[in-house]
Each structure stands twice: as C-alpha cells, then as structure tokens.
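Would you kindly consider the sequence and fold I have copied below?
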Amino acid sequence: MTCAALTWFLVLSLVLLCIRDSASLFLPDSKELRQLLNRYEEDAEQNNGSNTSGDRTRRAIRWSDREEILQLHNKLRGGVYPTASNMEYMVWDDELERSATHWAEECQWDHGPQDLLMSIGQNLAVHWGRYRSPAFHVQAWYDEVKDYTYPYPHECNPWCPERCSGPMCTHYTQLVWATTSRVGCAVHVCPKMNVWGEIWENAVYLVCNYSPKGNWIGEAPYQHGRPCSQCPPSFGGGCRNNLCYKGESTHKISIVHLKIKHNTELKLFTHLQTLTHNIKCETRLRDKCKGATCNRFKCPANCLNKKGKVWGTVSYDVQSSICRAAIHSGAIDNNGGVVDVTRTEKFPFFVRATKNAIFFSLSVTEITADCYTTVAEICPFKRPYSHCPRISCPADCKMQPSYWSPVIGNNIYADSSSICRSAIHAGVIKADGGLVDVLPLDKRKGYTGILKNGIQSERYWSCVCGNLVLL
C-alpha cells in the first residue's frame, strides 16, 4: 500500500469513527424522541414504505390525552383551597381545539392570535427531548398555586389585590377561573421553534384555549364558600365533585338559610379553655376584660337588685358591673343571659342615665347552621377583633364526607373547616349536635391532622387562611 493510500485510509477511518461516535451520543434518546414524533405527526410512508391513496383526517391531540387533560382540569378545579362555592364543571370544546390547533401550527412562542385573545383565555407550554404528557404541563400550571395568595372578600374594596410571589400565577388562575367552563387543546411538533432567543428542534408545543376567558384584573378567580352553594341557577342545583354540574348530579346541595334569633337561655359546651364565662352580678369589667376583645359572659338572674355599680350609658366605665351594665343597655333582662363585651377607647367622662331600671355590651345571637358552614362564611377574621354568633349544629354531621365538610387542624382549625364537624373532632359537642362558640384567630403557617372522636382531620401547610378555635 502506498503512502498516499495509507493516508487516505487513516483519514477515512477517522471520519467513520467520528461519525459513529457522534451517532452513539444520540442513541439513548432516539427511541423516546421517535415515539414522540410518531405520536403527533403522520409519517409520509406507511405499511413498510407503501404510499396511501389519500390524506387521512387527524386531530391535533390524541383522544387519551384529551381525556387526561379534561379529567385533570376538573380534579384540580374541584380541589382548590380555599374551597370554591361557584366553580363550574369543565367540558371539552371542539371549536377551541381547532383554534388551538391553528395557533400551535404557527410555532410561535407567544400568545395569539391577537384578535382571538379578546374573547378567550390561553395557556401555553413547550418542551423538547424526553417525553412529557400534556397532563404534565397542566399540573405545572396548577402548581403556581404555591406562589398565589387568594384574596378574601374583605380584601376586595372593591378591587381584589393581585398577590403572586413567584414569576407567574396567571396559568393557575386561568385554570381555576370559576366561570371558565370550556377548554380545547392541541399538541404540535415544531421542527424549529424560537423559545426566548434559543432555537429548539422538534419542540413539542401545547396550546390550551379557554372560554369564557378568565384572569380579569381586580377579580378573584372564584368565590370562596361551601362547594356548589353559589352555582348559577342554570345548573339546577347539580353538583359533581365540588363543581357546579348540569345533568345527573352526584350530589344535590340543600342550602340552609341562616336564622338569627336572640338568645335567652343557652346550654354551654366547654373544651380546654372556655369562651363563655359564668360570672356573678358584681363582677366588674376590669376583673375580666384584659384585651381588645373581651370574652363572652353568662349573667345569672336577678342582677337588677344587686349592689354592683354602673357608670355610663351605651359605653360604660371598667369599674361597672358587667351584668348590671348589660341590663342597663338592654342587652339582657333581669332573667340573665349571655352577653359579648368589647373594649373601646377611653372616654373623658360618662353620662349618667336611668335606663332599663340601670361598658358597651351586646346580646349574643344564635345562628342555626348546617354541617358545611365555615367560619370564613359567617365570621371571617378581621381587625379589630369581633365576636362571632353562637352556632347551633344539627345532628349527624359526623357522618358527612370529609371532601364536603373538611376538618383541617387540631384544636385550632383552618377557617375553611366545617364548624360542626370540627366541634365534634375537638370534643366540644357530640354527634347529636349542640351549641358551639367560635373565636376567629389570625392565620397560621400550618395545621396538623389527627384522628380524634371518630373524625380524621387533615394536615395542611403553607396555608394562607385564618384560624378558628372551638370552645
């Protein structure tokens, strides 16, 4: 072999080795990539290279992926926290799928087309390389919830604040927007796609279009409350998995209107600390009221003729008898009863007046609630501290399912918990119902779950809700 021939042989061998080594770098991923491409693109050749006689109609997303996307949307929407009272069941929309297909085929990493965005919502996702199902991206959109703080009604005056501590929360809010009831998605493999200045080859592009659109500025994504309690009338009371549902319902909700009445004689239920204190006719405000909000007191009968002094009218000095001041203000009569007392700012003087034969006191109201009622619905935490009405719980709340009447915490509970089931869990009342006093507290970072009194409470961390204490 000549020197020149030997040289060409060595060069050719080196090229072949380089090509072979380069190819081997892609072999581990080539099978997955080929499966991915075959999943969403038609091959030009079918049946071992034979040509087809005509084009075959193909949807932009597989049926199995479509069902997975839809089911995951409804599962996530039905499980939002805090709970939603008007979250609608989502269905697939073929027209939205077609519009998503047209945009996905443009292979532009941006929302569009602009003329359509005026009337629809849109979430986008893209990846390349290792296979990921469309549901992977749907879950990633929802996971933005970790950076989102839900705006409660008392924070919306009238516009709700936008509180997102992460890069973006709008994928999550669109996904759980209560009135968005239709979705259509498409998947397209783009040979080359510009993603934030980088060219991705064989990029798998997911486009989901929503209607009616969400993410309206100044609005909360949904109304907080008992699931399905504020569904539009067009749903006819239908409810499925915490979602307003048209059609045969897995649960029909019965809305119990809260009835308020004056309290005269109440049976007290106590647990650990007692919110309602039994006091004497002579007990003064200064003896019991230590904070901004004073406790709830039960006065005995016949305080009208006792010796406790009363200074003031409407507002009373701390030296005044609690029970006799309550009689003077009209909160209770001489038969006794339960009163709430609230501390106010100092007064330079107190007016003397003869009224009802005698501090600022209020009669305690009693609310008849159902097994689903939460503190967030009837007595949300706010400053300055305020008293909550006394809750009358019905029987058989213990047997209600946890997804419908959740109990979150132990002794101190999240304000989205069912008051009555939490009271059973805490040991305040039995399964046959009873009266419960509730004290709203400021929010906590987390709650522990424990099995107690036949009810398993839930554990929850990084919660942004308020608390309640049952007494």
Q: What stands out?
A: The first strand starts at residue 91 and ends at 92. The chain has a mean pLDDT of 75. The longest helix spans residues 3-40.
